[in-house]
Amino acid sequence: MALTLYAESGDYRVWKAQIIAAYAGLELEVKDSTTSPEFKDITLIGKAPVLSTPQGSISESNAIARYLARLRADSGLYGGTFHQAALVDQWVEFSALELEPTASVWVLPVKQKLAFNPKSHAQAVADMQIFLTKLNDHLLRNTFFVGNRITLADISIVTALVDAFREVFDPKFRAQIPNVVRWFETVVNQKPVADVLGKVELAKFEKKHKDNKGGQQQKQDNKDEKGGDKPKGGDKPQQQQQPKKGGDNKDQAKPKEAAPPKDPKEMSNADLEDMLEAEKSKKVKSPLDALPQSPMILDAVKKDLFSQRPWNPDFFKTFWGQFDAAGYCIYRSLYKYNEENKVYFRTLNAMGGFLQRCDAVRKYALGVMAVLGTDEEQTDAPFQLAGMWIFRGDKVPGEMLNENPDSEYYNWEKIDISNNNGKKEVETYFFAPEITGLKVLERRFMK
User: Fold this and answer.
1) Do 146 and 42 share a structural domain?
2) pLDDT (0 to 100) of residue 303
3) Rounded CA gap, 330 and 416, in Å?
4) Closest listed residue to residue 146, CA positions, set 91, 106, 219
5) Which terminus, N or C, of the chain has the lesser number of Cβ atoms within 10 Å?
6) Cα–Cα distances in Å, from 289 out to 155, 201, 276, 302, 375?
């Protein structure tokens, strides 16, 4: 079926349609509505987006989203029951009527697409906090908004919030909504979503709107230090103090005091970016980079492991011969709270979330994680989360312990590979269908 979407580039509503099409397995061509002459003939009131189908055109982004989601009922994008379908519609409407306009008032002035209004901005921030608190409460006991898989509800909300997460939801703001952050990171790292949105970098600070000169908007550009109006014609320069006769001018001998550091909230975007770059340049390299050079190159090890799909079955025949026990160590990671892993998909999410937060250690580690149990529907015992890790150095790197907050939920035990039992355990975690008498229901690598 030939489907063409006419829209303006960078519009989150385009992303919504593209992600839905990816999940539904639909071919969707996107054309720029501003340069396509045929757009004028199919649009309802001259506004994008518009979807062209063999049966005719469809306007309004949510009508387009619902149409695409329903084309493939087996995709599950509309849930599995009439009740779930109604819940999907509920969240789609909530996103359209509450989240999208509120996020726009906050974010669009930052992107210089909307004039900044202090009163509207303050109201948008307050409203967004209320809305996200409600979402956070819902996601406390739910991995996704409807059912046990991603639906149109998740796609609608994540595309409505992605620019806010990139531009204005700073770490302090995100700390108030941990469940929303967990859900957001889970969704944006799914392949159909990531292929459309790219890598989503969370905001390091709240970006501010700009004035027409490119600098930060001044809050009191017509006030003096005491809050009164400045005299017309600007401030008069102060008269230079003359040195006293017959003595030294002690004030002139005093060195100028360094200006106090600026409050990040009062800095322009350019100043903030310069500050971040300066901080990056000050960062000390990992202590692991200062270790003596090892004859075992971790990148070469990874390449050998995955030289065949899903992995090289003969990997360990060569690995143990080249393993550098002086430059590397091997640790087993056992989840401390396995008794809580009573739902299979949530256990998978916990494992996936942990691996997603391992980027800081990727250069220094090769790991495998597994979900263990009797079967996916087991009810008599909780699932087990465990892993095996090869690290540069002689202990678990600080990059893992400090940069991945989930690492504290695991017990880390060093493996003695000076004997065959230790080596056999490592090989079991990497390849065996069973570990400690339980089936490997899911195995994922961090490479």
Assistant:
1) no
2) 92
3) 8
4) 91
5) N
6) 41, 25, 23, 19, 43
Q: How many domains does the chain have?
A: 3
Rounded alpha-carbon distances, angstroms, from residue 238 to 226, 235, 241, 250, 428: 17, 9, 9, 19, 79
Domain co-membership, 10 together with 70 = yes
Query: Nearest-CA neighbor of 38 among 25, 55, 21, 50?
Result: 50
- Average pLDDT, rounded, for the chain: 84
Q: In this structure, is residue 282 part of a structural domain?
A: no
Closest CA to 392 of 284, 293, 304: 293
* 388 and 438 belong to one structural domain: yes
Whole-number Å distance between alpha carbons of 163 and 109: 12
Owning domain of residue 406: 298-446
Please name every residue paired with 373 in a beta bridge, in sequence order, or none if there are none.
439
Residue 441 φ then ψ, to 5° = -80, -30
What is the rounded CA–CA span in Å between residue 14 and residue 340? 39
**DSSP-assigned letter for residue 338:** G
* Verdict on whether the full-model pTM lies above 0.85: no
b/e map 6-31, b = 16+ CB within 10 Å: bbeeeebbbbbbbbbbbbbebebebb
Tens-place pLDDT, residues 383-415:
999 999 999 999 999 989 988 888 999 999 999
Coil vs helix vs strand at 31: strand
Q: Say if residue 25 is in the same domain as residue 134.
A: no
| Phi, psi (rounded to 5 degrees) for 64 | -65, -45
For residue 84, is pLDDT > 50? yes
Q: Kindly report, residue by residue over 154-194, the tens digit of the pLDDT.
A: 999 999 999 999 999 999 999 999 999 999 999 999 999 99
Domain boundary among 197, 221, 249: 197
> Residue 127, class by beta-carbon neighbours within 10 Å (0-12 exposed, 13-18 middle, 19+ buried)?
middle
CATH of the domain at 49: 3.40.30.10
pLDDT for residue 227 is more than 50: no
